[in-house]
Amino acid sequence: MAFTLYSLMQAALLCVNAIAVLHEERFLKNIGWGTDQGIGGFGEEPGIKSQLMNLVRSVRTVMRVPLIIVNSIAIVLLLLFG
Amino acid sequence: MRCNSALLTGLRPEPYSPPCHPTSCPSHEAPPPPPPPGATQPKRRRECRLQAGRGGADELRGLAQGPPLGLHQQGQSHWLLHCSGQRQTPWLSPRVRGESVLRGLRSCPSPAWRSGPPALLPRKMPAGGVPHCPRHPQSASRHRLRASAVRASRRHLFDDTSSAQSRGYGAHRAPGSLGYPTAPASAQDAFLTDPVSNMAMAYGSSLAAQGKELVDKNIDRFIPVTKLKYYFAVDTLYVGKKLGLLVFPYLHQDWEVQYQQDTPVAPRFDVNAPDLYIPAMAFITYILVAGLALGTQDRFSPDLLGLQASSALAWLTLEVLAILLSLYLVTVNTDLTTIDLVAFLGYKYVGMIGGVLMGLLFGRIGYYLVLGWCCVSIFVFMIRTLRLKILAEAAAEGVPVRGARNQLRMYLTMAVAAAQPLLMYWLTFHLVR
User: Fold this and answer.
1) Model confidence pTM above 0.90
2) How many structural domains does chain A have?
3) Residue B260: which H helix or E strand, with range?
4) Which of the four pLDDT bands, split at 50, 70 and 90, describes residue B47?
5) Is residue A71 part of a domain?
6) How far off is chain B from A22, nearest CA to CA, in Å?
7) The domain containing residue A6 runs over which residues?
8) pLDDT at B183
9) At residue A37, does pLDDT exceed 60?
10) At CB < 8 Å, which residues of chain B contact A?
11) Where is this region: Disordered (chain B) (predicted)?
């Protein structure tokens, strides 16, 4: 059972990187997940799709700078220690 | 009308308003005006409904003729001593104890109190002697929207027994060492009677007290210590009952957590409240039992213990993150906090321990039998507990509600509950040969 906390952190870092590289104009708008296409008024229930779009947008906004730092650390550590 | 103001107006003949912390004694404002007769009752949490009007105050006054009022005449300190000797002391931090003595009257049981007029005592008095809010059929089904500000006031409402003694002890040491009256008999006494060293010791102790206050104030920013303390406010009876409930949840009827003025009751007083003691202990026991199991098969090495611990923690973290994500996506308005979730997900370690131990004693047959039983029990337990948290409105009415939103929530509850047996099997099958 080699599922450790370290591998969980690696997987989380890769997932967040994957969300961060989704390009707004070239990709998200084309599949209808752009940030200006999600405003569904002020109704009761946002729905899963708009929640996901909000999540993607907030991850991209919030995690941009910390990801630079964490990725640099990960690259250095992997180069040094394999 | 809330309980506090009822007692205040009923027992004290002169107008007395104790200096009260604003978040813990909201009853000092004017009570809200009664709703117009035609209006529907607003959605409120369950509150203690000890009505002081219309004869309730007379009962309170009648009771006040007995010992509690006599105790008042002897001064507040006696009541404090009386209360602190009880097993269930009032839920107060030492800071507010002096100002909420009358609250202690209500929540602190004494033999004379128990024998008071039966109309005053609420119908269901749990073992802790704490007044149980009578089941109001309307408010029992209400959806609890939890703001984080409410959780901040939790610190005043449960008995924080961990720091009281140390604080009292620390405060008593300094005065005792000052003003040493007798003549110096040795070098140490000479040191103590020297006025400069007296001042130095007083200054040092005040510095230490300030430093401790600073640390106490700031550590709450990083680790929610008072919130965590709520989850460890358990006693042996609660642990026994909860373990029984985890293994046999089929006969338990009432799964709702009791509330006391908008905050849930400490686990010590309600078997339905989540706690972190059992999950933490069960996790550690699981690691040890895993080491034992590996040892009996000659597969043990010390770093395997760390690997097991890390693996179990990683699965727990993954589960918590997955459930938080799905709760966010389904936009469930729930008062299920992260720590609550960790507590609920940690209950499966109990079943895992049982399964592995039986597997050690009786081989694979015993392992499968006990694990199967514990899996079904945990499944039922999780469904019944989470149903009240995630599906609050639907569950309370008891009707299987259709509609896309509630169906989605039901699926989420079932998925969470179904993941427990799977993980229980996954984390233990390699330990039993």
Assistant:
1) no
2) 1
3) strand B259-260
4) very low
5) yes
6) 19
7) 2-29+48-81
8) 52
9) yes
10) 307-308, 310-311, 313-315, 317-318, 328-331, 405, 427, 430
11) 1-46
